[in-house]
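Protocol step 4 of 5: obtain the predicted structure for the target chain.
Materials: sequence only (see below). No template structures provided, no constraints applied. The aim of this step is simply to have a reference model before the mutagenesis design in step 5. Sequence pasted as it appears in the construct record:
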Amino acid sequence: MDKTLFKVPKMDCSAEENLIRMKLENLSSVYDLNFDLSRREVTVFHEGQLEQIEKSIRDLNLGGKMLSTGPTEQPGQTVITENKNQRKVLLAVLFINFAFFVIEMTTGLISRSMGLVADSLDMLADSIVYGLSLFAVGGTLMRKKRIARLAGYFQITLAVIGFLEVLRRFFGAENLPDFSTMIFVSVLALIANSICLYLLQQSKSKEEAHIKASMIFTSNDVIINLGVIAAGFLVSWLDSNRPDLIIGAIVFVVVIHGAVRILRLGK
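Step 4 output (structure tokens):
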């Protein structure tokens, strides 16, 4: 691992910082970037490709020049600590989401609730995303972007399959779902997702693409849980399975919207 310091005289604000990030993040050798706007300096942690990195900075016409370079045993103690913290947080939310995938899928099938089944599939998608994010920790910025894109495409595929199932149930003869199970399990899932969102928001690496992706998924889950709870009350009040099917359809619209945001992060 090498540590190279660049002086960038025209790096006056976050706009120039973002330009440098976009220029360097597609280089497979770049592992981390540290910016000091007050000194107009950027530190690049990388493995090889120094000439390409230097050329990329020069091409921005910000007056960038290399001040020093040399090997380092670790990309800064802060980076190592943050990677460890990322793993702990992602492991925790991975466990919570997979556990509730099992719980909601089982109770959804038993109670005949499309809302719970849809939410369970969304939980499964989140579990896969968190697993992919664990793979990304400590990796290159390019790999993290690729994982964000993969997560987005996975969510879109899942949403389309789920929406087709909603249509099948809407036009078919389906029994009334167990509204009490819908409400109880969704309240538990809401608590679990709130905990996950809190853990992710406390992460110091929440600006990285794969962590942002995880936060978007979890924010969607909180909205979905509230929707399923409302649908449970409506099923009881109207004595109809339509609210359950409608919330199931809405769930997948929310999932698609979140997936589009994820794909934007991966650009």
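Step 4 remarks: The longest strand covers residues 30-36. Helices lie at 14-24, 50-58, 77-111, 114-136, 141-171, 179-201, 209-238, 242-265.
Proceed to step 5.
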